[in-house]
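Reviewer 2 asked us to include a model.

Predict the structure of this chain.
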Amino acid sequence: MKLAGILLIVIGIISFAYQGISYTMTKKDAQIGPIAIQHDETHTLPLPPIVGGICLVGGILALGLGARQS
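Predicted model (structure tokens):
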């Protein structure tokens, strides 16, 4: 239970710091024989601050319950 609490707290802090996950996709525009024209598109998947808050509170509660059981 303590390990889960620590993990949730770390995830919460990281989500507050980054505010989202970005990834890059390569798209092919055209191909004529062996010649290909392509471009990279960067997309961002935003993480609302409430997700970080929920993870943080959940981690604190899990640490509290883990200490209480010991």
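The helical segments are 2-18, 49-69. Strands lie at 20-32, 35-46. We have added this to the supplementary material.
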